[in-house]
Amino acid sequence: MGLLSTKATCNSHGQDSSYFLGWEEYEKNPYHEIRNPNGIIQMGLAENQLCFDLVERWLEENPDAAGFKRDGKSIFKELALFQDYNGLPAFKKALAEFMSEIRDNKVTFDPDHIVLTAGATSANETLMFCLAEPGDAFLLPTPYYPGFDRDLKWRTGIEIVPIQCSSSNGFKITKPALLEAYQSAQNRNLKVKGVLVTNPSNPLGTTISTQELNLLLQFIASKNLHLISDEIYSGTVFQTPAFVSVMEILNQSYKHNDQIRKQVHIVYSLSKDLGLPGFRVGAVYSNDEVVVAAATKMSSFGLVSSQTQYLLSVMLSDETFRRKYIRENQMRLKKRQRMLVDGLEKAGIKCHKGNAGLFSWVDMRHLLGANTFEAEMELWRKIVFEVRLNVSPSQSCHCSEPGWFRVCFANMSEATLDLAMKRFKAFVVDSTTTKLNSTWIRSRNVNSTSNNLDTKRKSVAKWVFRLSIHDRSSESRDR
Ligand SMILES: Cc1ncc(COP(=O)(O)O)c(C=O)c1O
Question: What is the 3-state secondary structure (H, E, C) of 284-298?
């Protein structure tokens, strides 16, 4: 161990979070409709697989783009040698247009203020390196994306201080919560450098309101802080209220306030809106030229390959494709989210009202044995190992209330989602029966411990049997 760095041996990466552990369990026993129909269904991965047909059709119709060709002539050598860390101008222009289109062209983006990065992961970390020193803090509203512990803290040494939001007001960001987080950082002798929000929120699946955005801008102005808005899910808003980017509010209310404009930065990526996490395409957008210059130099450590940039510059500058894709993607996401919400409702489970994202924030507090994170872990283990659905618990998202779970709906087929809903329903019916049985036994005061366990055991056995029947019937239908 002594031969390795502390970074290599510390565990602040967050790999031991239930968020990543659930993925590991899924990898050991992944559901497949034919090869492994009793396996774990992955509902812990915010992937968007709903519009691959549109992308694939475009690729077929535009073979030059992926074939290293321009106007039928090979540009292989040009692409193979290109390594300018400023990025391909044609790609930055197309990306800026795509980002504007997603915002209904209410805002425009200057390609010269875009820094390309290997995904939003790299964009967020790059901003941390540009805006803060090791030991400084960023305030994040809870619940937040579990990956931020790795992306923001691990290599930079930055601290995250939670802004505690609560279900009592729909997890809205409030002034008292902001002030409390700020004070809590100060009590820990941490210098606060900024606030980071995801809009739309991961894991809430909701957009941030104009009122909250105004509050955030007033807060950073009063405390002289940065505001990072991670807008990686901006193209997934499928229902009103419409998405409002912080850039819109800046243009409306801070048009001539250069100082505040320089303190606001956007993170973007094509991992969610275009469903291309494997392509590793992300971006930092900043109004501060010094940040743009520093982030550009840092981007040497995580560039986007010229081949990918070229392909996407052709795809995203195709206005017809761009518009059709954005509209169709939103419609399909809406349908999927409805399927999940309705399916869970049939199982007596409610979702936080969402209008965006690739997931719902699901309320399973009534299924907890107690209002504690230990009970949440117990329920989570049951859902993963017995129900065989990988979902992300509240605790992994740093939520202060046990019993909420992030459940993804866009990384699987409709038939698989349907099966997942059946598994949920069978589980809830069984849990309720078990609870009723054990209450009845306790009230009769008959050798309660052994009877309780016995009832539970029988009940689980019955339930596993019922599920395998369900699975078999959906399996034959899936085929
Ligand atoms: C809010 C948020 N930011 C950043 C990321 C990382 O995205 P990328 O694949 O572009 O690195 C994710 C991925 O889930 C995310 O949800």
Answer: EEECCHHHHHHHHHH
Q: What are phi and psi of 423, to 5 degrees?
A: -65, -40
Q: Is the residue at 60 inside a domain?
A: no
Q: Is the CB of 201 under 6 A from ligand 1?
A: no
Atom 7 in ligand 1: residue holding the nearest Cα: 120
Mean pLDDT, rounded, for 428-445: 64
C-beta separation of 431 from 460 below 8 A: no
pTM, entire model: 0.90
Same domain, 312 and 332: no
Residue nearest to ligand 1 atom 15, measured at CA? 145
Q: Both 100 and 184 in a single domain? A: yes
Q: Which residues contact 158 (CB under 8 A, 6 or more apart)?
A: 128, 132, 134, 135, 136, 137, 138, 152, 193
Q: Is residue 58 part of a domain?
A: no
Name the one residue in this structure whose structure tokens are 């979070």: 17
C-beta 230 within 6 A of ligand 1: yes
Ligand 1 centroid – CA 351 distance (Å): 22
> Domain with 215 in it: what CATH number?
3.40.640.10
pLDDT of 432: 76
Kindly state if the Cβ of 121 falls inside 6 Å of ligand 1: yes
Average pLDDT over residues 289-306: 96
Tokens 């802080």 appear where?
225
How confident is the prediction for the chain on average, in pLDDT?
Answer: 90
Instruction: Give the lowest-confidence range in 51-65, 335-349, 419-433.
Output: 419-433
Is 43 near ligand 1, meaning CB less than 6 Å away?
no
Q: Which domain holds residue 431?
A: 6-51+328-478
Work out the pLDDT band at 9, boundaries 50, 70, 90: confident
Q: Which of 291, 322, 353 is the last residue of a domain?
A: 322
Verify that 191 and 317 share a domain, yes or no. Answer: yes
Can you give the CATH number for the domain in which 347 is found?
3.90.1150.10
Residue 302 CA, ligand 1 centroid: distance in Å = 15
CA dist 174 → 164, 196, 434 (Å): 9, 14, 40
Query: Is 90 in the same domain as 215?
Result: yes
Please indicate whether residue 230 is annotated as part of the active site.
Answer: yes
Output the pLDDT for position 435: 64
**pLDDT per residue as tens digits for the range 346-397:** 999 999 999 999 999 999 999 999 999 999 999 999 999 999 999 999 999 9
Q: What is the tally of structural domains in the chain?
A: 2
Residues 316 and 338 in one domain: no
Determine how many CB atoms are found less than 10 A away from the CB of residue 415.
14
Point out the domain boundary residue: 322, 354, 389: 322
- Of the listed ranges 41-55, 78-92, 384-398, 438-452, the least confidently predicted one is 438-452
Q: Is the CB of 271 under 6 A from ligand 1?
A: yes
* pLDDT attached to residue 458: 43
Residue 59 domain flag: no
- Residue 169 has a pLDDT of 97
Q: Which secondary structure element, helix H or strand E, spans residue 141, and what is its range? A: strand 137-141
232 is catalytic: yes
Distance (Å) from CA 53 to ligand 1 centroid: 23
**DSSP state, 149?**
I
